[in-house]
Each structure stands twice: as structure tokens, then as C-alpha cells.
Amino acid sequence: MKITWLGHSAFHIETGKAKILIDPFFTGNPSFDESTRRDATAGLTHILLTHGHGDHVGDTVKIAKETGATVVANFDLGMWLAHKGVTKLEPGNTGGTIHLGGFSATFVNALHSSAHISEDGVSHSLGNANGLVLHFDDEPTLYHMGDTDIFSDMALINELHQPEIGLVPIGDRFTMGGAVAALACQRFFKFGTVIPCHYGSFPIIDQTADTFVAAMDEMKGKVEVPKVGGSISR
């Protein structure tokens, strides 16, 4: 498995059977490296979304139309995307698992909001925010937490899924900050690899992973902090 961080919460996951984008926020993302766009979308099979905020839905509609990739999202967000012209869609909801050929995606809880404000100023709910647990046939189980605070039922997510790789938001203000994110990882999970995200993009969130790394006492050796566009193989 090759995991590439594309800035903010966007990741490219490549396995022998799938090429996956999670939360492809490219356009308008201050930390996105435009030179990575081609590799991120070439041969794409799936786009997975944690929730409906613009910095996570990002370029989904455009990429889906250009590549023919299947979009996986909660039902409310999925129906909104269908209205926008997305035709290959696999909707689900919290607790549900979708089998996608070579891997499955399970929607789990996240403590966050999920909405879109239209041009007339009206806020439209796009379902609950989620994390996504990906089980692969021959690869480590991966958990993208989405945007979230810490919550005690993370223990159940670990019990049910035993994720080996965690993609963890650490930027504070809109998600848990670095110290709390470290507590979540150390109290509730037994990750073999932890990759922080949702930082270093907008100026009002944390710009580095330093606080998180410093607080990851017992798991410090398991933290990987790639540069934007950098990859980790597992």
C-alpha cells in the first residue's frame, strides 16, 4: 500500500486493486501541490468522502466526471452529488459497510458538522460527518478519522476494526488539536502507523505537527509526517 498526503485531509491510497482519493480538496487548498494532481487522478477507481464541507468534498464532482471513479459518501451528501451530475455513486451511512471489490469502506462516527451553504446563503445539511475504515484483502486496515474531536466510542471502533494505520486530524479549532489527538491515538488504538492531517493549510489552524508529535510519547516511533506530496509505503 502506498499512501500519499496531498495536503489538508486529502490522501491518495494505491493498492494492487484500487486507486483511491479521500477528501480531494485541491482547488483552493493553500497547501496543495498542483504538480501532484495528475498522479493523484491517473487511473483513479474510487473517491471517498468523510463529510460535506467544501474543504473535503473539494474537486469531487470534476474528478468523478473526468475519471469515471466511483464516489462513496453518506446518503445525503451522495444525493447532493448526484444532483451535481455524479453518476457512479455508492451511498451509505453510519455503521454501514460498502464492499467495493478488493476493499470495503465502513462509515463510523465523527464529532463534527456537515453542510453546504448555497449561493443564496441557505445552509443545506449533507448528513452526518463520518470517519472511514477501509479493510483490504491483502493490505493493512486504514482508518481516516475525518474531522473529529476525541470521543470514547473510538474504543469500539478499535475493537470492531483493529485499524493498523490511522490518518488523524490534529489542526485544532475545527478538529481536536495535537495533544488531544495524541491522547486519542494512545488511549484507544494500537496503530502501527499514524499520519497526521488537517493542519498546515489555512492560517487559522496549526501549521506544523510538532505539538502532536511531542505528545505521542508511547507511540512516537509510529508517527510519520510526510511533506505534502510525500508518500509512505506499508
UniProtKB/TrEMBL annotation:
<feature type="domain" description="Metallo-beta-lactamase">
    <location>
        <begin position="7"/>
        <end position="198"/>
    </location>
</feature>
<comment type="similarity">
    <text>Belongs to the UPF0173 family.</text>
</comment>
<dbReference type="InterPro" id="IPR036866">
    <property type="entry name" value="RibonucZ/Hydroxyglut_hydro"/>
</dbReference>
<dbReference type="GO" id="GO:0016787">
    <property type="term" value="F:hydrolase activity"/>
</dbReference>
<dbReference type="InterPro" id="IPR050114">
    <property type="entry name" value="UPF0173_UPF0282_UlaG_hydrolase"/>
</dbReference>
<protein>
    <recommendedName>
        <fullName>UPF0173 metal-dependent hydrolase ACFQ33_03980</fullName>
    </recommendedName>
</protein>
<dbReference type="InterPro" id="IPR022877">
    <property type="entry name" value="UPF0173"/>
</dbReference>
<dbReference type="InterPro" id="IPR001279">
    <property type="entry name" value="Metallo-B-lactamas"/>
</dbReference>
<dbReference type="Pfam" id="PF12706">
    <property type="entry name" value="Lactamase_B_2"/>
</dbReference>
<keyword id="KW-0378">Hydrolase</keyword>
